[in-house]
Amino acid sequence: MKYISTRTKNSEKQNSAYVIKRGLAPDGGLYVPEEIPALTQGDIESLAKMTYPERAEYILSLFLDDYTREELKNAAEGAYSTEKFGGVAAPISKVADKYFLELWHGPTSAFKDMALQIMPRLLSLSLGKTGEEKDAYILVATSGDTGKAALEGYCDIDRVKIKVFYPVDGVSNIQKKQMASQKGSNVDVVSIKGNFDDAQSGVKKIFADESAKEMLAENGYFFSSANSINWGRLAPQIVYYVSAYCDLLAEGELNYGDLLDITVPTGNFGNILAAYIAKKMGLPLGKLVCASNCNDILTDFINTGVYDKRREFFTTVSPSMDILISSNLERLLYFTAGAEKTKECMDKLASEGIYNLDSHVMDEIRKDFAGYACSEEETKATIYEFFKKYGYLCDTHTAVAANAALKFEKESQNKMLVVSTASPYKFAPAVLSALGEEVPSDDFDALEKLNAVTKVAIPENLANLRSAEVRFTKVINPDEMINTL
Predict the structure, then answer these.
(1) Whether 88 contacts 54, CB under 8 Å
(2) pLDDT score recorded for residue 247
(3) Residues 247-264: pLDDT tens digits?
(4) What is the mean pLDDT of residues 259-271?
(5) How far is residue 24's CA from residue 353's CA, in Å, rounded to a whole number?
(6) Residue-by-residue DSSP string for 192-242
(7) ∠ CA 231-232-233 to the nearest 5 degrees?
(8) What pLDDT is stored for residue 240 in this prediction?
C-alpha cells in the first residue's frame, strides 16, 4: 500500500511508516492511500467474532502493510487494553431506536483516545522502519480533546517530544486543567490568545518554516504531527466504524447488507472521513450525516457546494467543533475531485478564504453525506430530552449529533448510529445547565453536582483532576508560537 499527496498529481509514492513519521506531504498536502482496500462479506462476518484489538490489527494491516502483523497485534493490544478502556474500547448503547457508539471510555474520556493510544506506538515503530536517526518533535493544535489525548498517548514515549497549543478561551476549564497538569518529561503545553483556527494555522506555518526545520535538525529533531492531518491518526478511526457494524451484526441488530446510517459531530472532518473510508472499503453504510454546531461551515458546504470561512466565529458549548478550517475535508476533495482541483481549492482558501466545487462533484459528495446544523438552544434541549425521556446522559457534542440524527430520520428507513465523542463530565457545566440545574461557579463542583443529579458515574481520570498539580501556565500571541520551540 503506497501513499500519495492530495495536492500533486502523480506525486512521489511513500509507504505507511514514512507518512506516519512525516505527517504532511512536502507540497503541503495530506497523505492518502493510493487505493482503498476492500472488505468482503466474509471479512466482516469473521471480524464480528473478534475482539476490538483483533479487529484493529486486521484492518490496520490492510493500510499499514509495511508493519508486521505481530507489530500491529502488540500495538493494538497495548493501546486498547482493559486497563486503559475499562472494558470494551468502543461499546454501543441502544437508546430508543438509535445506537450510540461511545468512544470516550479511554484514559482522557474523549474519542481522541481511540487513535492517540495506538498512534504513538505506530510512530515509534516508524522511526526504526525508516532508519530515522533524529527524534520526533510533535506539534499539536487542539480545540480541547486532541491535546490531552495526544499528551497522554505520547507521554514518556522514547525518541518523541510533544508540544500542544490551545486557544486560552476556547476550551473548557476541565480540558484546560487536564492539559496544564499533564505529567511526563517530554511534554509542553502553551495557550494562545485566539481561537483554534489561529492555533492550527500557526502549527502549519511552523511546519512550513525552513529556518525552524533547520534549527530543529541541528538539535537532533524533525517535525511530526499528531493531528488528524497525519494518516497515523486517521487510520485507527476507520476501525471503530467497522467494529460498530460488526457488533450490531453479532448482536442480531443488523443482518449483513443492512445499511447503517451514521451521524458524526464534526469539526475538523477527520472522524466522519474515517466513516467515509470504511464505506468505500465496502462496509454497508448508508448516509453519513455531518452534524455542525453554530459554526456550520461544513453543513453549508454540503448543502451549497461553497466553502466560505469568511464568517462570524462562535464560541459554543461544544468547543471541539468550533472550527472554520476543517483540514480533513481536503482528503474528501481529493477522493471526489482529484489532486489538481484540491490544490486549486486549498490555494483559494488560503488566499481568498473561499472556494466552491462543481455541481457534479457535489452530487457525488451528497450521495454519501448530508449536513445538519444545531443551535445552542437545540443542543441543550437534546441533552434534556434524552436524559428525561430515556435516562441517557450525553455531552454537548454528542447532543449536536443526536439532534442532527433526529432531523435526518425522516429521510431514511435505515438504522442510525450516533457517534458519542466525549463523556458528559468533560462539559459538566453546560450539561447541568441543559438539565435546568443551577451551575456552580467552580467546574469541579459542577462535576460533583452532575453526578448527584444524574447518578451517572464520574470517569476516574476526571474524578481525580481537581487535586492535580498545574505545570503549564504560559499564554502567548499566535505570532509567538515559533519562538517556543
Answers:
(1) no
(2) 99
(3) 999 999 999 999 999 999
(4) 97
(5) 21
(6) ESS-HHHHHHHHHHHHH-HHHHHHHHHTTEEEEE-STTSHHHHHHHHHHHH
(7) 90
(8) 99
Q: What are 149's three cell numbers? A: 489525548
Q: What does DSSP say about strands 285-292 and 369-373: parallel, antiparallel, or unpaired? A: parallel
Grid cell listed for 412? 431514511
DSSP string for 163-176:
EEEEETTSS-HHHH
- 144, pLDDT greater than 80: no
Quick one: cell of 468? 492535580
- Helix 329-337 vs helix 339-352: angle between axes, to the nearest 10 degrees? 140
> What per-residue confidence (pLDDT) applies to 86?
86
Residue whose C-alpha is closest to residue 446's, from 434, 458, 429: 429
Q: Catalytic pick from 73, 112, 204, 287?
A: 112
Residue 358's φ and ψ, nearest 5 degrees, are -65, 155
What pTM was estimated for this model as a whole? 0.93
Cα–Cα distance measured from residue 352 to residue 85, given in angstroms and rounded to the nearest whole number: 44
Query: Is 455 known to be catalytic?
Result: no
Q: Is the pLDDT of residue 227 over 90?
A: no
The position carrying cell 454528542 is 398
